[in-house]
């Protein structure tokens, strides 16, 4: 009985682990971006290579995607990336680890730069919209003031006209 429960727990654990896995050949851009260590630049490189054909195995993936070596492949695999459902089983060399770390840092820097650029662009657009809104409010305020002034002048003209019309009537009574 204990063995059956243990086997069931192992099966459930394996199912949960597989659910978290992201297959490089089937994943969407968003799913690839969700894997720690993969940013928009690497995602674009993966999808560009994937359009040429599915990755056969991890070595094919490493050979075709620039910036991915054995060390980075091991790290990505540890974060849940698979190739055809298989985790990476290669041996990591320290030299490749340094290259991969530099490549990851470079990708992260590019991603941060792209994000900053996009945020700056959005801020600029927002400032422009706020400026237009302020100008529209100013124009509306000026138009309202002009209308008020015109109404005041019209009222004064009407009073003058009424007063001048009343003068001849008053002289006629005398």
* Broad structural category: mainly alpha
Lateral arrangement of strands in the main beta sheet: 1-2
Low-pLDDT sequence parts? 14-19
Please give the count of helices: 6
Overall shape: rod-shaped
Beta content comes to under 5%
Q: Could you give the order of the helices and strands?
A: HEHHHHEH
Q: Please state the CA-atom Rg, rounded to the nearest Å.
A: 37 Å
For the secondary structure, the number of strands is 2
Q: Could you describe the largest sheet, including whether it forms a barrel? A: 2 strands, parallel
Helix content: over 70%
Overall number of structural domains: 1
N-to-C span: 126 Å
Mean pLDDT: 81
Features:
77% helix; 174 residues; 6 helices; two-stranded parallel ribbon; mainly alpha; rod-shaped; single chain
Written description of the protein model:
This protein is mainly α and 174 residues long. The protein has one domain (2-124). It is 77% helix and 2% strand. The protein is built from 6 helices and 2 strands, in the order H-E-H-H-H-H-E-H. It has a two-stranded parallel ribbon. The longest helix has 80 residues, at 94-173. The radius of gyration is 37 Å and the shape is rod-shaped. Mean pLDDT is 81; it is low at 14-19.
Task: Write a short abstract of this structure.
The chain is an all-alpha fold. It has 6 helices and 2 strands, in the order H-E-H-H-H-H-E-H. Strands 1-2 form a two-stranded parallel ribbon.
Secondary structure: elements and pairs:
Layout: H1 2-20, E1 22-23, H2 29-34, H3 40-52, H4 58-64, H5 70-78, E2 81-82, H6 94-173
